[in-house]
Amino acid sequence: MTTTRTTIALLGAGTMGQALLAGSLAGGLAPEDVWVSARRPEHVERIVDVHGVHGTTDNARAAEQADLVVLAAGPAQVLDIVAEISGHLREGAVVVSIADGIALADLEGRLPAHVGAARALPSITAQAGHGLTLLTPGASCTTAQIDAVTSLFARSGEVLRVEEEQHAVLGPLSSGGPAHLLYVADAMIEAAAVRGIPRDLGRRIVQQVMAGTAAWLEQSDEDAAVLRADVCAPGGAGIRRIATLDERAVRAALVAALTD
Ligand SMILES: NC(=O)c1ccc[n+]([C@@H]2O[C@H](COP(=O)([O-])OP(=O)(O)OC[C@H]3O[C@@H](n4cnc5c(N)ncnc54)[C@H](OP(=O)(O)O)[C@@H]3O)[C@@H](O)[C@H]2O)c1
């Protein structure tokens, strides 16, 4: 695959597919280089109208246009879709599955030998240009194919190469992570509302606090616990709030949720 322009087929355009599409287009991907397929024709039509990409309900038709095929339907559909498209893939194409829990070996075993396979786990925050994709290229991938897959996901955020066994452990932190932080954000906004603060003001404050804390953590070499001590002077209100969270086992509950 030596062309500089890569044609992408996105098979499945639900929550995650659309997040990737929006983030990638905002990151410079040309709509005319994208084919999208989904199950419902009216859904495809809406995506074509909104984004100016090519659309179809025929997975094989989308796949045969593409150098890079992203499988973005649910885990229960993905291997059936592979069976639909495998006879229609271009020589040297690469197929990347974002389906949680579908093993690379299952993908590779169903694809023709001339096609590369990779597994990726993106995050919904791709739609805001701050995604994080865990990427595991299969042994079947060439360097050019890995570069093409990396470039696609890098349009909407960061890409981290990981081992396939790490997906199950890292997924709850990365692709599941926004749900945990939004849970905390929602609770903070609600607590402010209990004390009479309008939710839009609470939300603005919490948003900036989350963005500022992420930037601070990124800038510093210190551990999160060390940074937290800077906001929690001994005997002060900050440390008492953390003590209340600990008394109610919030930290233990988070660790349990992420390790169950
Ligand atoms: N949501 C996340 O945060 C997240 C994070 C990481 C990975 N993932 C992975 O991303 C994949 C999609 O998740 P999602 O949350 O986006 O699911 P979703 O919202 O249910 O979307 C599924 C999409 O697949 C389409 N589809 C279903 N069967 C199809 C078929 N046979 N051919 C073509 N398209 C088909 C659906 O089309 P219609 O809309 O027309 O019905 C829909 O657009 C899953 O495998 C999941 O493990 C999700």
TrEMBL record:
EC numbers for this chain: 1.5.1.2
Alphabetical UniProt keywords: Amino-acid biosynthesis, Cytoplasm, NADP, Oxidoreductase, Proline biosynthesis, Signal
Residue span(s) of domain Pyrroline-5-carboxylate reductase catalytic N-terminal: 7-100
Keyword Cytoplasm included in the entry's annotation: yes
Signal peptide: 1-21
Compartments in which it is found: Cytoplasm
Catalyzed reactions: L-proline + NADP(+) = (S)-1-pyrroline-5-carboxylate + NADPH + 2 H(+); L-proline + NAD(+) = (S)-1-pyrroline-5-carboxylate + NADH + 2 H(+)
Chief site of localization: cytoplasm
Pfam families, per the entry: F420_oxidored (PF03807), P5CR_dimer (PF14748)
Family of the protein in this entry: Belongs to the pyrroline-5-carboxylate reductase family.
Function: Catalyzes the reduction of 1-pyrroline-5-carboxylate (PCA) to L-proline.
Entry protein name: Pyrroline-5-carboxylate reductase
Organism: Brachybacterium huguangmaarense
